[in-house]
Write a structure and sequence with these properties.
The chain is mostly beta strands. Strands 1, 2, 3, 4, 5, 6, 7 and 8 form an 8-stranded antiparallel beta sheet that branches. A hairpin with a 4-residue loop joins strand 3 and strand 4. The mean pLDDT is 93.
């Protein structure tokens, strides 16, 4: 996933591995507190992200554009992340969760340019 952060007029993005939590519609990722993007989302938790399936076949293009808030990990998030990335069990992890509020999915397998939109209810 590519995560985009911003503070004042300074945008920044980074690439991260993630695990999906279907119960809470969140993406769990790890990032040290001292990284530039973590320092930024500590100041402004509202972020954007994108996830893209790499392909050269137009009919197989799939990708998501996401808006949400980054929060500290919750109980159970570590197990979700370790299940997805077993080698991370030996790492000193600082885990976060991107709680999705808006997702636009482009899925050309459903028809060229097909877009599905989901928005969290207030």
């Amino acid at each position: 996933m590519t995560l985009a952060t911003t503070v004042a007029d300074e945008p920044y993005c980074c690439n991260l591995f993630y695990a999906y939590d279907p119960q809470s519609l969140a993406l769990i990722f790890t990032s040290d507190n001292t990284t530039h993007h973590a320092e930024m989302f500590a100041q402004n938790s509202q972020v954007a992200a994108s996830i893209v399936l790499e392909t050269r076949v137009v009919g197989k293009v799939q990708g998501a554009q996401i808006c949400g808030r980054v929060k500290p990990a919750q109980e159970g998030d570590k197990m979700l992340y370790i299940k997805r990335f077993p080698y991370a069990i030996v790492a000193d992890l600082t885990l976060w969760r991107l709680e999705m509020e808006y997702v636009k999915l482009t899925d050309n397998t459903l028809g060229f340019g097909k877009k599905l939109i989901w928005q969290k209810e207030e």
